[in-house]
Amino acid sequence: MKNVWVISLGGSRIVPDDVDDEFLLKFKKLLDSHRSQRFVVVTGGGSTARKYIVALRKLGEGTWNQSMEGIAVTRLHAGFMTRFFGKEANEEIPMNMKRVRNMLGKNRIVFCGALRYRDKNTSDGTAAKIAGFLGCPFINLTNVRGLYSADPRKDKRAKFISKISWKDFLKVARKVKYEAGQHFVLDLVAAREIAKKRVVTYIVGSLKAMDGILKGKRFIGTMIEG
Question: What is the CATH number of domain 4-224?
Answer without folding.
Answer: 3.40.1160.10
